[in-house]
Amino acid sequence: MPGRKTIVQGTGEVVKIIVGIVGKPNVGKSTFFSAITKTVVEIANYPFTTIKPNLGTAYVRKPCPHTFIGKSCNPRNSICLDGTRMIPISVMDVAGLVPEAHKGKGLGNKFLDDLRNADALIHVVDVSGLTDKEGNMVGKGFGNPMEDIEFIENEISYWLSDIISRNWKKISRRIGNEKIEDIISEMVSGLGIDERMVSDAMSRASFGPVDQWDEDDFLSIGRELLKTSKPMIIAANKADIADSEILRELMKRSPYPVIPVSADYELGLIKAARAGLIKYIPGDNNFTIVEKSRLSEQQLKALEKIREFMKMNNGTGVQNVLEKLIFDILKMITVYPVEDETHWTDKNGNVLPDVFLMRNGSTALDLAFRVHTDIGKNFIRAIDAKKKVVVGKDYVLNDQDVIKIVAKT
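Below the sequence we write its predicted structure tokens.
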């Protein structure tokens, strides 16, 4: 992942994943943000409600390994609720994007600048078609969600290509002495894009001789950089009022994974749970009414309508979007470093205090460096605490591994 780091939590530096919530104005981005972070933000049905990016924390869920040994855990960089480890993800809701934002239209320049730190994107689309290209309210079905996906992809691709093309004639003279991947990596390093991502993008992009690149060449590279550096998933919001045929067509045609979502339903359930009217853990596919006598007939009907939507879509979709992005698209796994492989504790006796999100394919040595640079440099061996076996530096980590690192002191 790009090198953004947060405060040391317990054993070492923790790389912070930042997810950007994008979309045109007035599609429910702020509602989605509130639902996923449980944070109240300004929500209104007019363009550019969000001016400054809203920042918050959401959580992805995994079964906590403490149940494996029958001991309570002592989380430090996460939360454990009834055997479920809640792992924090930073979420950023930025201003709505309109066509030609890369040229400065609307709040385009501000929007795109806010995106530079995002590792991945959730594109909130109004699948009901209630909004036009500018985010203005229109009749249901008049908007085109597929066109919304295409224009957001285009705007971010143009933004990336514009960054690469600046002063290209002068910069291209360095080619021959330096690798082109190194040159482009240097130009986009402030966007959290590394050389591996640049090389991957350029292997798929279509372009001619370097000294003759035109707008199409730069745009091709920009499109591929978007795919490698800012993976995207579609939150098909307002699916509760959308035409089912439009939703099916969107899921069929979209180049990105599409999850049906009702951010309104999720936010409503969270508020009802806080009021003690229902029992609901965000992300669950059902809820329980606590006391029917406290609810009006209208409220009961509304809750049953939400329940039917959840049955059809395995929940409201809000949590599903985030977890599919983190675990399936970014391919992250969870690993628990410990100092005592028998009791799964740190040196102070805390059980499973830390959990790290790491890219699938990471090794024991990668984990050692994640815990602390010195531990990585002085790595001797690792111990798989679940299997009670010694593993080497090239051992490929599995999801939910509990690992002790042995290093020279």
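The radius of gyration is 23 Å.
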